[in-house]
């Protein structure tokens, strides 16, 4: 399995480095059941935070697919495709860590919020490139806000590093979309 940060457990083993052992010993499973963890964050809490981010990325993938279909400008289309692929990578990495925490990652399908995001993007995309970019700006603002909130949580260091990498990607996406809207690049 791909392990971007070297934090996944060896086959059948406990996660390395990022899941602390409770004071006085005990296994990861003991911590998960007892609710012990880092500060206020338990292993279950971390898995829930990561699952929410993975679901947000799944929803973003579908929104990007809607937007890409409506964009006629080649350069913007290529960038949006790359951003969609970033979200796919986020889902892959987050899901691997969620599994390492003995939790189940979200299914690769939209939740109710995802259907709403996808529908909004589809409607906006009917207006062409500008509408698609406006929809994606709104989606990326939400994604940036959620990643920022997660990054500020008391996550273990390696999980925080993964969230930070993903958050950086989200900032790049949003900045690009804002720049394209401000410059109206599709008209040139």
Chart the SSEs and their pairings:
Elements: H1 28-34, E1 37-38, E2 41-42, H2 43-70, H3 74-100, H4 112-125, H5 129-151, H6 157-183
Antiparallel strand pairs: 1-2
Overall average residue pLDDT:
78
Helix content: 55-70%
Task: Report low-confidence residues grouped into runs of 5 or more.
Answer: 1-5, 8-38
Task: State the CATH architecture.
Answer: Up-down Bundle
Write the element-wise H/E pattern from the N-terminal end onward.
HEEHHHHH
CATH topology: Ferritin
CATH class division: Mainly Alpha
Work out the helix count.
Answer: 6
Distance from first to last alpha carbon: 44 Å
CATH superfamily: Ferritin, core subunit, four-helix bundle
Query: Using DSSP, what is the number of strands?
Result: 2
Alpha-beta content class: mainly alpha
Quick one: biggest sheet?
A: 2 strands, antiparallel
Cα Rg:
18 Å
* Count of structural domains: 1
Order of the strands making up the biggest sheet: 1-2
Strand content: under 5%
Can you tell me the overall shape? Answer: elongated
Short structural description:
The chain is mostly helical and 188 residues long.
């Amino acid at each position: 399995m791909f392990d971007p940060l070297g934090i996944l457990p060896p086959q059948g083993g406990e996660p390395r480095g990022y899941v602390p052992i409770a004071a006085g010993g005990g296994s990861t499973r003991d911590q998960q059941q007892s609710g012990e963890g880092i500060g206020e964050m338990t292993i279950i809490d971390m898995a829930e935070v990561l699952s929410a981010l993975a679901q947000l990325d799944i929803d973003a993938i579908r929104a990007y697919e809607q937007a890409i279909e409506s964009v006629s400008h080649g350069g913007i289309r290529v960038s949006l495709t790359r951003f969609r692929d970033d979200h796919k990578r986020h889902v892959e990495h987050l899901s691997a860590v969620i599994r390492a925490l003995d939790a189940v990652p979200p299914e690769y399908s939209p939740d109710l919020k995802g259907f709403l995001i996808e529908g909004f993007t589809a409607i906006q995309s009917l207006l062409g490139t500008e509408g698609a970019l406006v929809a994606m700006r709104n989606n990326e603002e939400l994604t940036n806000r959620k990643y920022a909130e997660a990054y500020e949580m008391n996550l273990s260091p390696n999980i925080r590093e993964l969230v930070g990498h993903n958050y950086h990607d989200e900032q790049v996406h949003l900045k690009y979309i804002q720049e394209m809207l401000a410059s109206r690049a599709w008209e040139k």
